[in-house]
Write a structure and sequence with these properties.
By secondary structure, this protein is mainly alpha-helical. The longest helix has about 45 residues. The chain is built from 14 helices and no strands. Helix 3 crosses helix 7, helix 4 crosses helix 13 and helix 12 crosses helix 13.
């Protein structure tokens, strides 16, 4: 069978690609949910999630190193057999589709709130999906190059935002120091922030990123960058706006950008950050669509993933319009998508590792 041609890119592009994909959730209502969990200690919630994410990267790297030259899709099928392995891989494909659908809807709703209040949601969703379809069709190498070119504007823009907010920071907003309690902050907060897409996504793209030997280093660095920005942004939000007010904001990041004031001629710069949102949103949607298409192509033993992009893109568009409003979309994100992320990112790798150890023990006993 002819192998799927994915292209190749270096560790630097891989780290930036995964980091930008991870921080995409910061532009949405997600930070508000962390404020509701942690209160004044919302900035601490990613710390526990980082520990879980690093552990997930480590477990995934161990599995990938046991099967060099293969992605997690082939490994799952080989470990559990064609029937169970296929069912588990279909869960992974469904996960990418769910992420793509909900992110498409949330980014579209955010764009309506921030810049285009009179534009129908379907028009904005089509625009985001058009960019996502184009990116997925061009391939992961093109997406990696785009992320490398755009990261100075994305990460640099966030850094500038955090720096210019220093005059408006109020240290008293951080108290009580542990907010709603350390058990909630480091327990519930860790579970929420550990619900990411990038571990399973990197495991699907592992061969394009340089193979299993590079996986652990790339994953660790990407997680440290992404969670570091999460901590910095949440800390700036909490220091700038009291957590009681933050819990009432739909788009905390947009509110923060609208507060920038450095004199009479440097204010109302949130329009610049809308452009950054668009770049990050299109990249996130393209990545999830690509992940779904490549995973399904490998599952079906197809030589090319591109014919699957269009039907999968149509499904993402259709599913993105199913929630009735922004509130329903946020509810689906928090109550369905966040728990769902633990299945392909953490549960499947642990099951594969246990299965491999059992098989090794049985082989030793036979000998």
């Amino acid at each position: 069978m002819k192998m799927i041609k994915e292209g190749a890119f270096g560790p630097a592009e891989a780290i930036i690609l995964l980091a930008i994909s991870n921080i995409a959730r910061l532009f949405l209502p997600y930070p508000r949910s962390l404020v509701e969990i942690g209160g004044s200690a919302a900035w601490m919630t990613p710390l526990g999630g980082l520990v879980i994410a690093l552990a997930g990267v480590y477990v995934m790297s161990v599995i990938l190193n046991k099967y060099p030259g293969k992605t997690i899709i082939e490994i799952t099928e080989e470990a559990f057999g064609p029937v169970v392995g296929t069912l588990l891989n279909l869960v992974t494909v469904s996960f990418f589709m769910a992420v793509g659908s909900l992110f498409t809807r949330e980014f579209s709703e955010a764009m309506i709130i921030a810049a285009l209040p009179e534009t129908p949601i379907s028009v904005i969703s089509v625009a985001f999906l058009a960019m996502g379809l184009t990116g997925a069709y061009l391939g992961i190498e093109a997406l990696a190059r785009v992320s490398r070119l755009s990261y100075p504007y994305v990460l640099g823009g966030i850094s500038v935002l955090l720096l210019v907010m220093i005059p408006q920071l109020d240290i008293h907003n951080l108290f009580p120091l542990f907010g709603n309690g350390p058990l909630v902050v480091f327990g519930q907060g860790a579970i929420s922030t550990a619900g990411i897409t990038e571990i399973i996504l990197a495991a699907v793209l592992v061969q394009a990123m340089g193979g299993a030997k590079q996986f652990r280093s790339i994953g660790f660095r990407a997680m440290l960058i992404a969670f570091g920005f999460s901590v910095a942004l949440l800390a700036t939000l909490t220091l700038s706006i009291h957590h009681y007010s933050l819990s009432e904001l739909t788009l905390p990041f947009y509110k923060l950008s609208s507060m920038i004031y450095l004199g009479r001629f440097f204010q109302r710069v949130e329009a610049v950050f809308v452009i950054i949102w668009s770049i990050v949103g299109a990249l996130k949607i393209a990545l999830t669509l690509y992940g779904a298409a490549v995973s399904l192509a490998r599952l079906l033993k197809l030589p090319d993933y591109r014919p699957l992009i269009w039907p999968l893109g149509l499904l993402i568009f259709t599913f993105s319009l199913l929630p009735t409003d922004m509130t329903a979309t946020i509810s689906l994100d928090l109550q369905f998508l966040r728990p769902f992320t633990f299945v392909p990112n953490y549960l499947f790798p642990v099951l594969i590792m246990i299965f491999c150890e059992v098989m090794i023990q049985e082989e030793v006993q036979r000998r």
